[in-house]
Fold this sequence. Notes:
By secondary structure, the chain is an all-alpha fold. The protein has helices at residues 2-27, 30-48, 64-75, 78-92, 113-132, 139-165, 169-176, 181-198; strands spanning 51-52, 61-62. The protein has a single domain, classed as Arp2/3 complex 21 kDa subunit ARPC3 (Orthogonal Bundle), CATH 1.10.1760. The protein has a two-stranded antiparallel sheet with strand order 1-2. Helix 3 (64-75) packs parallel to helix 5 (113-132). The longest helix has 27 residues, at 139-165.
Amino acid sequence: xxANKGLISTIYSYRRIRSNTFKRFYExxxxxxxxxxxxxxxxxxxxxxxxxFLPFTPVPFTGQIFFxxxxxxxxxxxxxxxxxxxxxxxxxxxxxxxxGTGGGVEVLIGVTGGYLIGFIIASTIIGMFTERxxxxxxxxxxxxxxxxxxxxxxxxxxxxxxxxxxxGFQKTMxxxxxxxxxxxxxxxxxxALISTAILPKKN
Length: 203
């Protein structure tokens, strides 16, 4: 009986801490949110260093998407800002993109540039849904939102890849989408589980 009371007390304490943490974030000033967005941009840059190149495509496996998806759930509408900072710093200063490149806007017009644009849009949309709608914070909806985010990244990445590599739909799918689906679904599931656990279910 005491063990059950202790467990219930722990759960309530966790929920209170979770709610207060997010409330402080939403009520914090712009500078605080900007710093948190910068921190998430740095994590995305670190995730980009976890990469595996395949012999038949210039698009590598990376750890970026995990942090792209997570940025939207943790930062809300500022998730998109975090990815814009990641892309901006990568183009101007820090060589932290997946190919170890940076320092020029040419990265955005390269074969993987569409994915970077997709990062910004996907994180923004995930953040808007998660911040505005309490029902979107449950596991089912979080998983759907994560899969939607991955789909957005694929669309922008595949379109730019196709235009630059002059590939048709089938070859573009084989080179720029299909090899990554299974791993990215696992990222979506893991991110949805994390976000569902840490997001408050009421304002």
